[in-house]
Amino acid sequence: MLVISCDPAQLPPLYADVVDADEKPVGRLVEIFGNISSPCASVYCGDTAGCAPDGMLYTK
Description:
single chain; about 60 residues; mainly beta; Thrombin, subunit H; 5-stranded antiparallel β-sheet; globular
């Protein structure tokens, strides 16, 4: 499970697939929570998922 910060102007849809910069699958976005001005999201990761701690993640 990952907790990531989101851009409040471009919130992703729930259950969207999350990929890294190389478009390798990381997981699925399962919840958006927190403050309206700085929301966070939880991503349920697969078994083979991996990402750098300072890497950017994207929804597909």
